[in-house]
Design brief:
The chain is an alpha/beta fold and 188 residues long. It has one domain (13-149, 164-177): Peroxisomal Thiolase, Chain A, domain 1. The chain contains five helices and nine strands; from the N terminus they run βββαβαβαβαβαββ. The chain has helices at residues 26-29, 51-70, 90-96, 112-125, 140-147, and strands at 2-4, 8-11, 15-24, 39-40, 79-83, 103-105, 131-138, 167-175, 181-184. The strands form two sheets. It has a six-stranded mixed beta sheet with strand order 4-3-8-7-5-6, with helices on both faces. It is globular and about 55 Å long. Residues 177-188 have low confidence and may be disordered.
Length: 188
């Protein structure tokens, strides 16, 4: 691996993305990208008693889907780099605890997934890993509770308010030499 300039890393043995998985909530299922998701939920709770438990289940099932699609056995995955919007990456921690894959929690809000990809690529190129997962999840209702307008209070949302995604995205990285790959960090 080589640092180029102030914020770009060039990998000597860049990883490839083997497969991906994505599970989303009902609102996302109404959009034009619905056919590209692995699973669209009908209910924000997905059979759980809280939104936080639903988010943990979403990331757990997204990991399971990606592992099945990639055909890489879970015990051949060296690390999982994942995060969510809740305190202490709680959804990721609880969603991944049964996978027995070593877990690095990342909290970068909107940048979590791409940060995970960069870290995983560095681990693979540096020889610390052969296979890795990168994941990020969020749940509209739990994010609203923690950051914006708690739904339990019945607050009116302004028409211009942001809407956090309910869903999880995951990709499986695998050590393979295909093409030159650079990861650039942008600082503002």
């Amino acid at each position: 691996m080589q640092k180029i300039g102030m914020q770009t890393i060039k990998f000597d043995t860049p990883p490839s993305i083997v497969d991906t998985a994505c599970i989303v909530g009902p609102k996302e299922a109404e959009g034009p990208l619905a056919k590209y998701f692995d699973q669209c939920l009908d209910d924000e709770f997905w059979g759980e008693k809280s939104w936080e438990k639903a988010e943990s289940k979403i990331i757990k099932e997204t990991v399971s889907t990606a592992i099945n699609k990639s055909k890489i056995p879970a015990d051949n995955i060296d690390f999982c780099f994942a995060g969510d919007l809740l305190n202490q990456c709680i959804s990721s921690s609880f969603g991944l605890r049964y996978s027995n894959i070593p877990f690095f929690g990342i909290f970068g809000a909107c940048s979590t997934f791409v940060e995970g990809m960069g870290i995983a690529a560095s681990f693979i190129d540096g020889g610390a890993a052969t296979n890795a997962l990168c994941a990020a999840s969020s749940h509209f209702c739990s994010a609203e509770k923690q950051f914006r307008f708690p739904l339990e209070l019945g607050n009116q949302r302004p028409p211009t308010a942001q809407w956090t995604v309910t869903g999880a995205r995951l990709c499986c990285y695998f050590k393979k030499w295909k093409w030159p790959f650079c990861y650039s960090l942008y600082s503002w």
